[in-house]
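Q: Now give one record:
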Amino acid sequence: MGLVWSAVLPVKRLESAKTRLRGALPGVAHDRLVLALVQDTVAAVLACPDVAHLMVVTSAPAVAGAVSALGARVVPDAPEAGLNPAFAYGARLAGDAPVVALAGDLPALRPAELSAALSAAGGRRSFVPDAAGTGTTLLAAPDGSLLDPRFGPGSAAAHAGSGATTLAGPWPSLRQDVDTGADLAVAAAIGLGTQTDALYRSRPGRGSRYRSGMQGTVASYDPDGRSGTVLLDDGTELPFPAAAFDASGLRLLRPGQRVRLERRDGEVTALGLVTMPGSAGPLR
């Protein structure tokens, strides 16, 4: 094992966090969904063998109680001045330990991917861009005093411009932050943590209302992960995993293509291209 890191993870007050995600899961309270994202992120970080301590900087009582129960240390957000001052405050409290700053909306995070990124960082101040390539999900500094966080819109360019090394490894669960309902569907295709998964599985559309054999339009497709999302005609976005793509005999999918879905127990198990009204077939 290389460096042993102290992680810092700020969390806003739930009612004002993740505004673009509001309404993503009908019937689920917004603050409950945001808290689930945080809980699954914290659980994954604590399960990473390279992280010795996790400090959650927050003034939200519900967050403090939930993450304390998981084993995180909670400190009040004394600066109360936004995300970057909260990161910097946590880094100062960590002292001279190597510090990793993490986004709190990584519900599909795998500890092994976090470990791989920290190993790649080594002794360099480094950052991991988000899946879109414009944001940042991780900023690592071997000396916490050198963290210099620049999270926010355009943070990937800001961190690169400040001299941090870009770490763009194949870490889909680490790079997939969740700002919108579409982001949540992609994270679900990767595999959500237990708290977010329970809410996601309870969403409208997972039950018998959406029958096997119905049609939709491909909204996104990741050729490396062989997974993506389908937009149903009523506006509901459903993820499909690699297993569903592999079961379909398809070689490729493109956004905008019409597909027919096969489902079992609410999950997409296969899909085929709609080649004429009422029929579907594999891509030739």
Remarks:
- DSSP finds nine helices and 13 strands in the chain.
